[in-house]
Amino acid sequence: MPKKVHETPMLDQLESGPWPSFVTGLKRLAQDNDMMADLLGQLEASYQDKKGYWKGGTIGVYGYGGGVIPRFTELKDANDKPRFPAAAEFHTLRVQPPAGMHYDTATLRKLCDIWEKHGSGLIALHGQSGDIMFQGATSERVQPAFDELNEAGFDLGGAGPALRTSMSCVGAARCEMSCFDEARALRAVINPNLDDMHRPALPYKFKFKFSGCPNDCVNSIQRSDFAVIGTWRDNIRIDEALARAWFAGHGMEQLVNDVVTRCPTKALSVKRAGTESKAAHVSAVRMSDDQVLEIDNHDCVRCMHCLNVMPGALLPGKDRGVTLLVGGKSVLKIGSTMGTVVVPFMKLETDADLERLGELARNVIDFFADNALEHERIGETIDRIGLANFLEGVGLPIDPNMIVEPRANPYVRTDGWDEEVAKWEERKRDAA
Amino acid sequence: MAAAHRAPIESGVPDPMPLMHPVMRKNYGKWVYHNHPKPGVLYHRAAGGDEIWTVKAGTQRQLDVHSIRKLCDIGDRYADGHLRFTARSNVEYMVADASKVDPLIEALSAAGFPVGGTANSVSMIAHTQGFLHCDIPGTDASGVVKALMDELYEEFVKCEMPNRVKLSTSCCEINCGGQADMAIIMQHTKPPKINHDLVANICERPAVVARCPVAAIRPALVNGKPSLEVDEKKCVCCGACYPPCPPMQINDPEHSKIAIWVGGKNANARGRPTFHKLVASGLPNNPPRWPEVAAAVRKILATYKADARPWERMVDWIERIGWPRFFEKTGLPFTKYHIDDWRGARRTLNASTHIRF
Predict the structure, then answer these.
(1) In chain B, whose CA is at the least distance from the CA of A267?
(2) Of A243, A391, B47, B346, most Cβ neighbours within 10 A?
(3) What count of CB pairs under 8 Å joins A to B?
(4) Inter-chain touch A14–B288, beta carbons under 8 Å
């Protein structure tokens, strides 16, 4: 016999309007789930009082130290008894989704059945780190719910000071901008390091994210400690038929105002047909019988703007790979920081390439584990010790692509100058 | 006892390949072209000529199993049994036959899932847990998003903005919702209220002291008990001490306000990625529909929509017109709180005579 549904006058106001209502969903669950009926009672109290009523704790599954977010109610009556007892324990299981968040309906239905059986029936698709969040289980049901999810091919994600669940964009599955196999790279980096996800022992959280091109659709540069972003080294490829079709539809005004003048490095110019450069680093595409769009690929920073405006007419080159950036994070504690370049380019095609990325990822995690202060993100560590020391620690060479500009102050001791120059010359010789 | 425990299978990230729509699997890494036939629909073509249409729809993100099964029913009936989700909790169905697009749109619309969110739309708002599950929220997440998306519904389904518009909300200054063209974030305005009876038992005091970004917290004996005290002149009301020390209550029904930040962008397109900047604060935390926040969001978006040129994201538009004109056009007041005084802040000052008149 389902519990009486609590009055929820404030939440009820979120059932009207055109956007799908989570309140309607919660109420539907509450019809045959006591936990959800009481959860609605507590949520309504939060709306009335403008206060949260959950506290954390320690709940886990056998063999793992993380991946469950425990929640116990703090909304108690005068006798210290929960006001909404069926929702007094409302724990979340964070579960790693398939890379790229692809599902077939049979898999999703199975996840629903498991959660209906053991939990509240409420699932977030997906959390901000990418987890499938199974929200609302009692302490007692966390283990059996995990066992069934785990037998179905799913594993817990990260929580606390640990390697966190990762995300990749749709990428190669459906996007012509994709410069590497995002899903494969994600699995190649995360799956060998699950010990650091399931048994939290790092100074603080550590996140990887994988975006197939510099449009960075999973926001890796701002949201991850280690961003893997696709790019290319050779010329932008052109498809003249699609370029001509674009120009026929949009005209010179849009070519100039929306494409050429928006290039951040002035790498684009419009030329009269026949006068375009024949240099090897120039892509020239005939937009019409009279007009050519010329791209100086040496000046191009692969920002993606012109490719975005003229899809298919301009495409990433064939010599593809990734740029790696380290140190992105949100506010706490020094303010938000972006990831910054630590590897300007590396190929990511063969098994050996993936192994190199995996080794570098492991090196950076180890450096973080050994050198970061408690509750410090790697971006803060770099802020504290300087990029040069970080690079030396993880064994990466310095590169002028890592800076926007050289230092503008003289407060640096430079008595190792000649040795550093010798290293630069040696790196140049090695690269040649 | 040990025999009673089942050891976990540390399988990690599942392989997406068996779950992916077969046309995507077949053409993996071979796509060469896309366009945007209409709002909510994307068309992609692979090198070998295979085609796929994607229909995107908004969801409530906090999905009950009945809604997920409804999405599955639609997938089984209209979309070959496959679907995926975007980073902003939109659902995407893929079909390899153009004639399947309109029935899919009809089915989604009939089931209450708005079709849109592609190209130059205001997409679904990235958000977090709020009152539903967070242990430190100043406000709700899903409710703010539901209220705002009701207001912005037309911009989600029509795709008529100058460029993409990404929004986020966060229930505290930690900003789990993330950077965005426009971010709606709780901003506390008073120092934490400390329950000195509980600090010694609940909080690891040195860790709490270390957590403060402005070194405003110090150990103290209060009423004979070991506790912590806050130098309220130094305190920036960020709430960083509250998660490790719940007796330092930062949330306040009246004094915790809502702020609006604009101009964040993670894409490298045109300028480098940017962080969002504070433009408005002091808005009341007013559930269940946060009308004051909704009005401010609508005003900023309408100004951007009317004034930005094609392909200008919020940040590109403001870079062109300048901040003084942004405040003038949106009617938002400019205060001393907009002038950054955190470390390195002088970089944000105008060290030039570049002034628009």
Answers:
(1) B270
(2) A243
(3) 359
(4) yes
